Each structure stands twice: as structure tokens, then as C-alpha cells.
Hints:
alpha+beta, 198 residues
Amino acid sequence: MDIKTAKQIFDAHNGIMRTKDLIKHHMYNRFIKKMMADGYVEKIKYGYYQWQDDRSFSEVAIIARLFPDAVVCMESALQFYEYTDRTPSVWSLAVDKHSTKSRFDIDYPKVKPYYIPKTQLELGVKNVMIEETQIKIFNRERAICDCLRHENKMDVEVFNKAIQAYIKDPKKNIPRLMEYAKVLRTESKVRKIIGVWL
């Protein structure tokens, strides 16, 4: 097999392939090692390889490929909605509480999983495009409810800025916020912290 064919196969897999997919396409260990040595391919975690091109710098493309079941949440969601001006050092991902923990042990990009019940994982999910990649993220109301639930684990400044930004956001949906707060048992916090501003 030549490099051109290998690139076409990687392209068909959005630039990231697992070992078993490589073997299925007759790309075996020696050829993979040669592609890595020649700078065409990079190993991003055990059993996962990425083609080195413009996309290879996109963290979101790696997240979407490695964790298709995860939902962007907490500080990462706040950044998307411009509720914080800090760039998080890790990707916050909501995942099923039964997920295997070792999945998230990767060097790049850094991820921080939040293990939650499946019923809560489906609440307030939407698909968005980030850097030409489709990925799941919690909507504004769900992101704010999660901030209220995890207030004691968040930086005070980040928390306060996020709440104020949501209150000023013309796209906010208070009935939806209250609906989610009821399911996530944060009603009293919503009334106490956000209610005073409305």
C-alpha cells in the first residue's frame, strides 16, 4: 500500500483510525510504524492513530471521534456560549456513569469526565459545529444548572461571570431553566441565585 491510498482511507475515517480498522484495511504494524517514522501518522492514545494534516491540530475533532457518546459540559460549554473569557485547560465531558474510566486517560487533548446517570445525560443536549466538527453540547440552561450543582467545585470568578452572562443573554429561556432545575434538583438555587436578577 502507498501513502496516497493510506491517506484516502484515513480521510474516510475523519483522519482518526483505530488499530482494528487499520488491520481491516490491510495496514499492519510495520506499515503503521513507517508512516509514524515518516511523519504521516501520530499515535494519540493506545489503539488510536491520527493522520497529520491541518485537522490534526483540532482538539474537538479528536474529542468527537474518541468520545462520540460524550456531551461537552461545564467550563467547556460556558466557553462555547461566551459565558467565560477563560480558556479551560481541559475538556469537560459529561458521560454515562457506567463508562470505563480508562477511556479518558489520554495525553492529548486533556479531558475531565463527569459521570452522570443516563437519564440526566440526555437532558438539554444539542448538536453544534465547532471548528467544522459536529459535537454534542449541553444547551445554555443545562450548562447553568450544572454550574449551580457544582458551584463548590468551580472557581468563584468563573461561576459569578457565567451566572451574570446568562442573566444578560437575550437567548436565555427561563421556563426551560426552571424545568431542568426541577429534574436536576437545583430549583432552590435557581430561585435564590438567578431569581433575584429577573
